[in-house]
Amino acid sequence: MFFEIDILIRRSGRTVHGDFKALSGLTALFGPSGSGKTSVLDAVAGLLKPERGRIAVDGRVLFDSDAGIDLAPEQRACGYVFQDGRLFPHRTVTQNLLFGWNLAPPDRRWMTPEDAIDFLGIDHLLDRMPRTLSGGEAQRVAIGRALLSGPRCLLMDEPLASLDEARREEIMRVIEKVRDELRLPILYVSHDRGEVERLADHVVPIHPK
Fold first, then answer.
1. How does pLDDT run across 41-99, given as a tens digit for each residue?
2. Of 35, 104, 123, 129, which residue is least crowded by CB atoms under 10 Å?
3. What separation in angstroms does the CA of 155 have from each of 12, 32, 33, 40, 45?
4. Residue 16: closest CA among 32, 43, 33, 39
5. How many CB atoms lie within 10 A of CB 69?
């Protein structure tokens, strides 16, 4: 198993129980808005501490409340792609990409900036500022920054939600390319059934409680 997750999260008066195992490929956490999908993703990334439970990725324990293990986010080797991209507005595309590269320990880097730029087709964007990018262009850069952080897996939180139909299709193809050509395991949050049916190898329903 690549993802092994059994956690209890209490947040804003809501209880979320994430309990699943999944092989590599793209695993979709699927459910309505407010069901706790992003909370599970944040817990895997180390941005949110579960009340109790265990998280292991590729056999490596990231969190275990009983054993007192809680790795810092930078130690978890999870590349995170947010819904809104969250590029640094004061940095060029090149500088945003190199932030991910510089963040990764040298022994964890498996993709060079040149390879990421070529893979994502963003060489024409390198000198641009984030405010000048379309939604699809910004998400390509955000995916590149995540890939250059040397991740063992990608966490993607509704990366298509803020895009129009044409840009959704564009980024959907990029995600398929990451899944199929890089074979990087992906934990993917969505409430869109069509999106999940197209992209996911495994689906984990998340229900509000």
1. 999 999 999 999 999 999 999 999 999 999 999 899 999 999 887 899 999 999 999 98
2. 123
3. 23, 18, 17, 10, 8
4. 39
5. 13
Question: How far, in Å, CA of 181 to CA of 47, rounded?
Answer: 29
pLDDT, tens digit, 9 for 90 and up, residues 139-183 = 999 999 999 999 999 999 999 988 888 899 999 999 999 999 999
Contacts 24+ apart (CB under 8 A), 105-112: 105/150, 108/77, 108/150, 109/148, 109/150, 110/150, 111/147, 111/148, 111/150
Extract the tokens encoding 66: 């009983």
Has this prediction a pTM greater than 0.85?
A: yes
d(CA 163, CA 147): 21
- For the beta carbon of residue 199, count every other beta carbon within 10 angstroms: 21
Tokens 């939180």 label which residue?
A: 157
